[in-house]
Amino acid sequence: MKALIIGAAGFVGGYLIKELSRSGWEVHATCLPNEEIHEECCVHTLDILKKEDILPLVDEVSPDVVYHLAAQSSVALSWKRPQLTAEINIIGSINLLEALREAAKKDIRTVLIGSGEEYGYIREGACPLTESESLSPGNVYAATKACQGMLGSIYARAYKMDIIMVRAFNHSGPGQASIFVISDFCRQIAEIENGMREPVINVGNLSAKRDFTDVRDVVRAYRLLGEKGRTGCIYNVGRGKAAEIRSILDTALSFAKLPIEVKQDPGRMRASDIPLIEPDVSRISADTGWRAGISMEQTVEDTLNYWRGKLMSYGASLGK
Ligand code: A2R
Fold first, then answer.
1. Which pLDDT score, from 0 to 100, does residue 298 have?
2. What is the pLDDT averaged over residues 210-220?
3. Is residue 287 assigned to a domain?
4. Domain span at residue 254?
5. Which protein residues are within 6 Å of ligand 1, measured from CB?
6. 107 and 152: one domain?
7. Ligand 1 centroid to residue 142 C-alpha, Å
8. Averaged pLDDT score across all residues of the chain
């Protein structure tokens, strides 16, 4: 099997390259001209807003499966730069779909990566959320991803294209930016252990329950969907068992090398925090056999060790 991963220089891309390569796939991956891809594969540069560049690349690589990861993926930035977010996530996706529609190879499977955020303001009692639950996006990023998914369904039906839509719930692991909660806790703990800050961890709402999956499980789901997913289908990807943020914090603190005080930071509280978000993952399980296998404890421990290593090499570079 030959894959073309669009937007592979981000958090998930490297893991997906490794997962596919390990499973014997030939992997081609794109990044923006100012980015780098460190995993072994055939690297191409591509900006999905330059629509004339996409078709020649697709025809040159002639992949069996295209994974579309390229996005403006920050919710916070989507409020500040709504036009940019819509341009990359909607127009960029249309550019890709149009190129795939015109590609010489007609049986390319496309996996569009969307988000659990698309469900948004969910009604009481809706969890676990099945893929048929209505979408009520609560931020600009989520709206653009819902739109991407709708476009995928439209192209699949209208042009008989082999397109699969994914709604990925929270995923985490070593290498993730510290704007995400597990990475944020782990980074703060590593900084405290390294003497870079007082032994106080700042936290937001600890009672919210969210569904966390290790990124290494998530990319395995993406591979299996590329191999066994049903054309035109939408798939939730998540553990299917939400955890209270408090329990994630407790797990992270249990790995800390010194006692740490917990401080609620009003700046980290969100006015409209939905108490529980949990997907139903029976569809992906039934169609591919996938289930999350890596425990939340393992994800937290590995992420903490990642930050410890990163701060150590940063310290070493400063001659500390
Ligand atoms: O924004 P940057 O400079 O970090 O680059 C991102 C890249 N990207 C683009 N690639 C091609 N053409 C564009 N016009 C364009 N704009 C941005 O897509 C970044 O390298 C990559 C997306 O990676 P992350 O933001 O790290 O997302 P992650 O966590 O790998 O998630 C993969 C997918 C995304 O569609 C998320 O929205 C979804 O999974 O949850």
1. 98
2. 97
3. no
4. 181-209+242-274+294-317
5. 7, 9-13, 32, 35, 46-49, 69-73, 88, 92, 113, 115, 168
6. yes
7. 14
8. 96
- Considering the domain architecture, whether residues 135 and 259 belong to the same structural domain is answered as no
Task: Say yes or no: 219 and 260 in one domain.
Answer: no
Q: What percent of the chain has pLDDT over 70?
A: 97
Q: Are residues 193 and 166 in the same domain?
A: no
DSSP E strand boundaries for the chain: 2-6, 26-31, 42-45, 65-68, 109-115, 162-168, 171-172, 200-203, 209-210, 213-214, 234-237, 243-244, 261-264
Contact (Cβ atoms closer than 8 angstroms) between residue 284 and residue 220: no
pLDDT confidence bin for 272, thresholds 50/70/90 = low
313 and 257 both lie in a single domain? yes
Task: Say if residue 222 is in the same domain as residue 302.
Answer: no
CB 313: neighbour CB atoms within 10 A? 9
b/e per residue 103-118 (b: at least 16 CB within 10 A) = beeeebbbbbbbbbbb
pLDDT in tens, 144-201: 999 999 999 999 999 999 999 999 999 999 999 999 999 999 999 999 999 999 999 9
Based on the fold, state whether residues 65 and 202 are members of the same structural domain: no
pTM value? Answer: 0.96
Q: Report the CATH number at residue 198.
A: 3.90.25.10
Ligand 1 center–CA 254 separation, angstroms: 33
Residue 312 has what pLDDT?
86
With the most atoms of ligand 1 within 8 angstroms of its CB, the residue from 4, 5, 6, 12 to mutate is 12
Structural domain total, the chain: 2
Q: Quick check: 318 pLDDT over 70?
A: no
